[in-house]
Amino acid sequence: MGKIRAGKRCARFANRRGAAGRLRRHTGLMQESLVRALRAQRPQIRTRWEALLRIERANTPLANPDALVFMLDWTLDEMFTALGGPHARRRIPRAVEGAAGKAHCPCGRNPLLTYFAAGEQALDEALVLAQADLPALDPVVRDAAFAELTLVVREISRREIESFCAVCQYRLGAQTTAVAGSTAARV
After folding, report:
1. pLDDT, tens digit, for every residue of 128-150?
2. From CA 100, how far away is CA 113, in angstroms rounded?
3. pLDDT band of 115, cuts 50, 70, 90
4. Most C-beta atoms within 10 A of its C-beta, which of 63, 68, 90, 169?
5. For 4-19, what is each residue's pLDDT tens digit?
6. How many beta carbons lie within 10 A of that of residue 162, not counting itself?
7. How many angstroms separate the CA atoms of 27 and 96, rounded?
8. Which among 142, 155, 164 has a CA at the least distance from the CA of 78?
9. Other Cβ atoms closer than 10 A to 111
10. Helix (H, G, I), strand (E, B) or coil at 103
């Protein structure tokens, strides 16, 4: 009765209460020392994020960096709250199961796509610098910190990008074009 059958689908990794639950803890809360180090770099993160925004070509007037920089402080507040807050542990299982992929915009005109890509790069660079100051940091903890940061950034970006896409005037046109394209491909 205690043996695990090799052919049983839920016997090992598919069992949500078994192995998968233990794997999720790998991306648990980021160490407080790393969160503090990131918070200490906040002015540099903001400066780098803005610089990266200005490098990218704006594909719409709303993607102009001057129109987006006002959001930097709010977004950083959201990210630091998510990284160090008590609600982070409840957020992780949903984020891990939801595949930490980047948000999608059907028409590609969402100005937040570039905004959050630049932010993710700036935060990754800051985390690398913070980890370099801690040479005794365990590689598993280092990888978990990157996974957690990626989950936080992508969860916030997905929420904001999807909200913007919900009111986009090109949304229906992009969906119609996509449906027409897939229908034409079948013929």
Report:
1. 999 999 888 888 988 999 999 99
2. 15
3. very high
4. 68
5. 455 544 444 444 433 3
6. 14
7. 8
8. 155
9. 22
10. coil
Query: Tokens representing 105?
Result: 């915009």
With tokens 């986009």, the residue in question is 168
Enter the DSSP assignment of 26: G
pLDDT at 31: 84
Question: Which residues neighbour 75 within 8 Å (Cβ) at sequence distance 6 or greater?
Answer: 119, 156
pLDDT at 27 over 80: no
- Output the six-digit token pair for 94: 């949903």
Say what the pLDDT of residue 100 is: 54
What gap in Å lies between CA 140 and CA 146, rounded to an integer? 10
Please report, for the chain, the start and end positions of each structural domain, with discontinuous segments joined by +.
Answer: 30-85+98-167
pLDDT digits (tens, 9 = 90+) for 88-105: 544 444 444 444 567 778
Nearest-5° Cα angle at 47, 43 to 51: 170
